[in-house]
């Protein structure tokens, strides 16, 4: 891969940047907001190599993508020294469903508890949709959801599985990072991605972004629109309609 400064920006789906730093020392890992802006400024001053920002969302945090695009858009206006590019997110919801199904296939439990840190109500609702798809296209008859810092929490999720007759419960992490302490008798079905798999996905996103950049597409405009269509339904009024793809 060509020389590139890779910046991973984290939200609630990867709340511990140190987890990513432990996977690879080649990445700059930051939270959003001012930390991302400072990391972009540092990379601009350090070398003329392209700067690629990868939003570390698994499909439930479109705001992280939009925030990264705004930071890059601002930096692009301030400097013309280094090419700036926003990659596709680490994963979309379909990727997360597939990764969770992979983890589910590796367990022998009769109940799966999909767990992730809580976000907005819409992001939390998306996790319930994802869990339903894991159940629909998997072999487990019982798939429930728990939200770290939300409702239902981990204890509530475990209790629900047991009340529904589960004898063996495995927690599947729908996020990146070390899992929480688990109640007695509950198996850890993680991590969602091994270190090698995570490196491979990040490298693929960066390579694709650099390919697009070479063809004149930096991904920033698309990223600025990432939150559109998430949240409550809205009306554009007469003369302002547009299609919503599904």
Keywords:
single chain, 246 residues, alpha/beta, Rossmann fold, 2 domains, 4-stranded parallel sheet, 8 helices, disordered C terminus
Strand portion: 15-25%
Outline the biggest β-sheet.
4 strands, parallel
Uncertain residue ranges: 230-238, 240-246
Globally, the shape reads elongated
Task: Give the helices and strands as they follow along the chain.
Answer: EHEHEHEHEHEHEEHH
**Could you say which structural class the secondary elements and strand pairing correspond to?**
alpha/beta
Separation, N- and C-terminal Cα atoms: 34 Å
Major sheet strand order: 2-1-3-4
User: What is the β-strand count?
Assistant: 8
**Helical stretch tally:** 8
Query: Which class of the largest domain in CATH terms?
Result: Alpha Beta
Please tell me how large the radius of gyration is.
Answer: 19 Å
Percent helix among the residues?
40-55%
- State the CATH architecture of the largest domain: 3-Layer(aba) Sandwich
Tell me the number of structural domains. Answer: 2
Integer average pLDDT: 90
The CATH topology of the largest domain turns out to be Rossmann fold
